[in-house]
Amino acid sequence: MVNILDRISWVLGKIATYMATIILVSVFFVISAGIICRFTSLRISWTEELARWGLISLTYVGASAALRNKQHVGVNFVVNALPAKIAKIVTGLAYIAVMVTVSYFFFNSLEAALKATRIRGDIIPLSLKYVKLLLPMSFFMMFFHLAWGLSTLFGAKSVDGKTIGL
Amino acid sequence: MGIIALVFVLAMAIGIPIAFVLGASSLYYFVFLGNIPLSMIGQKMFSGIDNYVLLAIPFFILAGELMNRSKITDALISFSNILVGRIPGALAQINIVASVFFAGITGSGVADTAALGSILIPAMEKEGYTPAYAAAVTVASSVIGPIIPPSVVMVIYSMATGESVGALFAAGYVPGLSIALVLMILAYYYAIKQKHPRRVEKIPMKQVILTLRESIIGLLCPVILIAGIFSGMFTPTEAAVVACLYAIIAGKYLLKTMKWKDVFESFRGAAVASAITLMVIAMANLFGQVLTLERIPSLVADVMLGITRNRFVFLMLVNLFLLFMGMIMDPGASVLILAPILLPIAISLGIQPLHFALVMIVNLNIGLITPPVGTCLYAAAPIAKLSIEKISKAVLPFVGVELIALMLLTYIPELTLFVPRLLGYIY
């Protein structure tokens, strides 16, 4: 069970990292295209909106990849100062608290995405649902990373040797 | 609101990352205390980050990554050696001056610590500096990174308050250079006291020209970036993209130090690194909503104005408060939450908004090198192979001189306002 969780978390981490990279590369080209077109008097109006959508996607997809790599910044000195056993319990509680938060965010963002089915971009005639769906997808990935992180507290080891989670 | 504060502190103490502390505290309010539909959370998470100016953040981070991978950092260090290598405590001085140049490329203090620290901390140790001192100089000078433009935290401030990014960038030069100057004076004092070495031999003219030729490529990047913004040719986001494009061309075709694989790796590193900052912004927006619903801005204003109506005392109180906040919270999150609360009070007391912005930004960035949430300390610790506690102790005198610089900037507004006035941002 723990091995399967580890595998899923590892694969989701890779997917999120590559997705975030592709989004950043795409936004880079979109903004570059906007600049070139402005200087050549060629009017394209959709670049700004598409770039903003890219930014929103990058935020949440990239944040889930960062969670897998334990890159989010937090205060650890209190936990580090505690005796090992208590620190383990406290860290477990922290994992559970974040898992609850992420679960709420998953459902809230999914609801918001489904409600946006008929809403289209200001310029791009595409349903906002598709952009907004990336949020619950990212929170879903975060939940898996946290579940695996919680399991590492009980001695499980990661396939890539990383300590995962908070 | 007391319960929210308790949840916030508790969540932070048990090691939850700051982005999720902000998210969890907001969620607690919406679920248990607020009389607001929960669907608003999903909406706010989307709209809170839907801002074109924020796109500058990933590209400023990317520009730093690209410059670092194309070995432009090495050239900037060599150039700094020509400039200040003969001053006592040469490598410490080079470290500080290189930070000034690097600050013109990237807008993040942590990037500065990682890029320069990996080269200069081992080099300083080899020349006989203690590892703690080498790490302290590196982290202390990293504070310059987000103050001299481009600056990620200035972009966030602009988003939070509507202040012009160009004006903020213009106002950042003198404060950034002032901090560099006080750090150099302290490094000089230590060099004399502890007999730190300096470069004795002269660098041959041929070598100087070669170094200049290599470093000019790196030095041109901030010129393109800033000239583009100040002239109105580019928005800050576009300028950041142009800087990245320039860095790719420079590294791949001019210096030939970068392969396509390095370009891809830079994009990958920047994508995840910027997502961390952006996630904090998204969650801070949600938390800001809680503060607004609880009317905290007007409460704080009443309390502050009840204590004093003197702008000098107010600035002192704000400085003390922000120093504390900088110690426990990321500068970006602090700016997003506190700037909309404190700025109206500052304006009502007749403080120039741009001046107040820089006081706030410089102050909160000093928090990058103070424990417990001094992210630069965390970046330097593995490079110097030292504990956070040891580096924190060694960096204290440098924090002291940075606070002196902060006081000068606080009480001599013209230091901050001189350049924006010159460029026509204020009259």
Write the layout of secondary structure elements.
The complex is a heterodimer of chains A (166) and B (427).
Chain A: H1 2-39, H2 47-68, H3 77-81, H4 84-115, H5 129-132, H6 134-152
Helix pairs in contact in A: 1-2, 1-6, 2-6, 4-6
Chain B: H1 2-13, H2 18-33, H3 39-47, H4 56-69, H5 72-84, H6 90-103, H7 109-126, H8 131-142, H9 152-161, H10 165-193, H11 205-230, H12 236-254, H13 260-293, H14 296-307, H15 311-328, H16 331-348, H17 353-366, H18 375-384, H19 388-411, H20 414-422
Account of the protein in words:
The complex is a heterodimer of chains A (166) and B (427). By secondary structure, chain A is mostly helical. Chain A has one domain (2-155). Chain A contains six helices and no strands. Chain A has helices spanning 2-39, 47-68, 77-81, 84-115, 129-132, 134-152. The two termini of chain A are 21 Å apart. Chain B has 427 residues and is mainly alpha-helical. Chain B has one domain (36-422). Chain B is 78% helix and 0% strand. Chain B has helices at 2-13, 18-33, 39-47, 56-69, 72-84, 90-103, 109-126, 131-142, 152-161, 165-193, 205-230, 236-254, 260-293, 296-307, 311-328, 331-348, 353-366, 375-384, 388-411, 414-422. Chain B is globular, with a radius of gyration of 21 Å. The model of chain B has no long low-confidence stretch (mean pLDDT 90).
In summary, what is this structure?
The complex is a heterodimer of chains A (166) and B (427). With 166 residues, chain A is mainly alpha-helical.
Which features characterize this protein?
heterodimer, A: 166 residues, mainly alpha, B: 427 residues, 20 helices, 0% strand
State the helicity of chain B in percent bands: over 70%
SS-derived structural category of chain A: mainly alpha
The beta-strand count of chain B equals 0
> Low-confidence runs of chain A (pLDDT<50, min 5 residues)?
161-165
Number of domains as seen in the coordinates of chain B: 1
Query: SS-based structural class of chain B?
Result: mainly alpha
For the termini of chain A, the CA-CA separation is: 21 Å
Quote the average pLDDT of chain B. Answer: 90
Arithmetic mean of pLDDT of chain A: 87
- Please provide the ordered H/E string of secondary-structure elements of chain B: HHHHHHHHHHHHHHHHHHHH
Count of helix runs of chain A: 6
Q: What is the CA-based Rg of chain A, rounded?
A: 19 Å
Fraction of residues of chain A in helices? Answer: over 70%
- Biggest interface, CB < 8 A: A-B, 58 and 60 residues
The major pleated sheet of chain B works out as: none
Oligomer: heterodimer
> What overall geometry of chain B do the principal axes of the alpha carbons give?
globular
Counted by DSSP, the helix tally of chain B is 20
N-to-C span of chain B: 41 Å
